[in-house]
Structures are given as C-alpha cells and as structure tokens.
Design a protein that fits this description.
Layout (H helix, E strand, L loop, with lengths): L20 H9 L6 E2 L16 H12 L14 H12 L4 H4 L3 E7 H16 L4 E6 L4 H8 L3 E6 L1 E2 L4 E2 L1 H10 L5 E5 L12 H14 L2 E6 L14 H8 L4 E6 L11 E7 L3 H19 L5 H11 L1 H31 L8 H4 L4 E3 L4 H11 L1 E2 L5 E3 L8 H15 L1
Parallel strand pairs: 1-12, 3-4, 3-7, 7-8, 8-9
Antiparallel strand pairs: 2-10, 5-6, 9-10, 11-13
Family: Belongs to the class-I pyridoxal-phosphate-dependent aminotransferase family.
Protein name: Aspartate aminotransferase
Keywords: Aminotransferase, Pyridoxal phosphate, Transferase
C-alpha cells in the first residue's frame, strides 16, 4: 500500500462533519427499527417518505413532452420568466417596486447560492462590510457571509427563558449597530427556533432599521410553507419594500415546491430607481460569471411553468397548504402527547412556534440521551424538524422527551 505521507496533501486534516448533515450520517448507521431522524430540513409524508408534489410532476411531464425545448445555456442571470415570477411572488403582483423597474432579480443556486451571490456583491459594492445575524440562526449563515468577505456579528433574537422572541434585546442590539450595517432577517419561520416577530414588532424593526440606515437582507426559505399562505409569509418583506427603501431578498423553492435537489433560488435587490437597478444587475453578472457561469435550467423551468399558469398555481397553493397544515397538526399532536404524559415544564412553545422547525428547549445532554436510549436523531441544540414526524412516531418522541426531562430533573 502506498505511503500517504508522500502525498502533497498529507498535511490536510479531516474536517468535522457538518452538524446538520452529520445527524443523517449517524442516523443511517443506526440499525434500530424505531430510529427517527428529526435533523434534516426536508418535508416527509405521514408515512415518512419524501414528497414530490403532483403539480411538480405535471409541470415536469409538460417540459419533457415539449420537443421544442433544448438544453442550451441560460444567460448569466438565469431564466427570465422565472426571475420575473419570483419577484412577483415575494413582493406581490401589484408591488410598486416591480412596476417602477426598481427590482433586479437573478436566478441562483437555491437559498444558499442566493445568499452567497448577494453577500459577494455587498462585499464588493457596499460601503459597510458588517452583517448582523440573529442569535441563533441557520448554521450555514455565518460561513456563507464570512467566506464572501463580510464580518459577522450577532443580534439577540431567541430568549431561552420564554422560548420566544427576545424583542427588546433585538431592538437594543440593532440600535447599537453602526449606521449602514447589513442586517440578515428571516422573512418567516425562523430557522432554527420557529419564533417570528408579530406584524407590529416587524413594523418597529422596520422603523428602527430605516432610521439608522441599516440595510435589510431577507432570507426567505419558507414562503407559504410556514402558515400555508404565500402572502402572509411575505408580509415582513413587503413592509420594507412599501416604504420605498432598498433591500435584498434571497428566495428558495426547496421547501415550498419540494425541489430540494434541483437547487432553485433567486436573489432580488430592490433599488431606489430603475437606473441603479440596471447597474446593480450588471455587477451581479460579474459576481456570478466566475462562480458558476450560469444557473441550471430544469428546476427553474418547473417553477416558471407552475407560477405562470393560473390553474397550476392554484393547485400548488392547495398542496402547499396541505404540507403546512400537516406540520401545524404535528405540533398540536406533540404538545397533546406531552400534556397527556404530564411531562414537566411548559411546552406551549411547540404550538406557538411556526414552520418546519421547533426549538424544543432540550439541552445537549438530553439530546444525546434521546439518541442513545431512544434512537432519536436531532441537532445538539435541540432543534427538531416537525416535518419529520408522523402520528405514528409522535408517541415514541413524546416518551423520549418525557424520559430525558425526567432523568435530567
């Protein structure tokens, strides 16, 4: 066998597993018949299976049957129809920003790619290189922004005592941020906590940010998937666009259309006027070209097919609401199961939180106990994917939580 020390890469150390994807690796190695993976942020049916939406299958079939379709490169900015329809979906069909051509939208590689392109653009063309992100936030956020050349700081967001929003802490930290700093905001269904500001709180956040000239960068990964209503889930973004100010928005269709592996996303930048928007777009092209040249065509074509056909759009909203409703029902069932067991503590946060994830409030020791004794896998911060649950598996989870809380009490 060759000696690896001769390799020019012999100095390379083994990297740690991604904390989220690593959960799945450990789960796959477990041979227990009762094992349960609540780490992955992907929707599952009541039977625990991945779901392809009927409307997605129909759109795909139409694309396959259309012999005029070719596999040529898209432009650097992506599929024009897709970009136009994506902007309309998040900002609203009657958005003045769209009517005044103040929005530039580019197709990117799902939510992660959209955030990265936006971050690289800001690092090159924006005067302030500090971005404030919520504590806690999605594990990939700090890495994406740091590698793009921005400096990451945190603002308070989650209050472990109430398992809700630390609204005063959030306002104090943003008030103390330097003028012009960038602020990352989760448009809805905050990941990992499932805790969102109310509309009144959003309005106060907007006033504070605009008064200090802070630049909003929205991450919208769950539009329609949180409440089941596409307009309600875009409300926070639309508030910031309605005041005429500038902002960025990264969109993903992984969750709300179940297109995880197609990597379909968009980055929109709302500018002061059409001339600025056109210049911004020219520079976004220079960010994208050396990164991946142009985005893939298939997933974006599926999205565009659905969004531009009224009947298919309506069919999508029904399927989307069914997914959101199932998650809401899982929350209620888990809460009821814990109540029935008389589990110590107040578990009402499970039904108050929204979206795919619940921040259970379980600590690292309780999480590892549940994995070791009950074969339940989740991230060490106690975040669980509600979409990974079913009526069949809830009793098993409730038993495990009850045991973990009792043991640690």
């Amino acid at each position: 066998m060759a000696n690896s020390s001769n390799s020019v890469f012999a100095h390379v150390v083994r990297a740690p597993e991604d904390p989220i994807l690593g959960v799945t690796v450990a789960y796959n190695k477990d041979t227990s018949p009762v094992k349960l993976n609540l780490g992955v942020g992907a929707y599952r049916t009541e039977e625990g299976k991945p779901l392809v939406l009927n409307v997605v299958r129909r759109a795909e079939q139409m694309l396959v049957n259309d012999t005029s379709r070719v596999k040529e490169y898209l432009s650097i900015t992506g599929l024009a129809d897709f970009n136009k329809l994506s902007a309309k979906l998040i900002f609203g069909a009657d958005s003045p920003a769209i009517q005044e051509n103040r929005v530039t939208t580019v197709q990117c590689l799902s939510g992660t790619g959209s955030l990265r392109v936006g971050a690289e653009f800001l690092a090159k063309h924006y005067h302030e290189h500090t971005i404030y992100i919520p504590q806690p936030t999605w594990g990939n956020h700090p890495k994406v922004f740091t590698l793009a050349g921005l400096s990451v700081k945190y603002y308070r967001y989650y209050d472990p005592a109430t398992r809700g929003l630390d609204f005063q802490g959030l306002l104090d930290d943003l008030a103390a941020a330097p003028a012009g700093a960038i602020v990352l905001l989760h448009a809805c269904a905050h990941n990992p906590t499932g805790v969102d500001p109310t509309n009144d709180q959003w309005e106060k956040i907007r006033q504070l940010m605009r008064s200090k000239g802070l630049l909003p960068f929205f991450d919208s990964a769950y539009q329609g998937f949180a409440s089941g209503n596409l307009d309600a889930d875009a409300q926070s973004v639309r508030m910031f666009v309605a005041d005429g100010g500038e902002c960025l928005a990264a969109q993903s269709y992984a969750k709300n259309m179940g297109l995880y592996g197609e990597r379909v996303g968009a980055l929109s930048i709302v500018c002061k006027d059409a001339d600025v928007a056109s210049r911004v777009e020219s520079q976004l092209k220079l960010v994208i070209r050396p990164m991946y040249s142009n985005p893939p065509i298939h997933g974006a074509s599926i999205v565009a097919t659905i969004l531009k056909d009224r009947q298919m759009y309506d069919e999508w909203t029904i399927e989307l609401k069914a997914m959101a409703d199932r998650i809401i029902s899982m929350r209620q069932q888990l809460f009821d199961a814990l109540q029935a067991r008389g589990t110590t503590g107040d578990w009402s946060h499970i039904i108050k939180q929204i979206g795919m994830f619940t921040f259970t409030g379980l600590n690292t020791e309780q999480v590892s106990f549940m994995t070791r004794e009950h074969h339940i896998y989740m991230t060490s911060d106690g975040r669980i994917s509600m979409a990974g649950l079913s009526s069949r598996t809830i009793p098993h989870l409730a038993d495990a939580i009850h045991a973990a809380v009792t043991k640690a009490a």
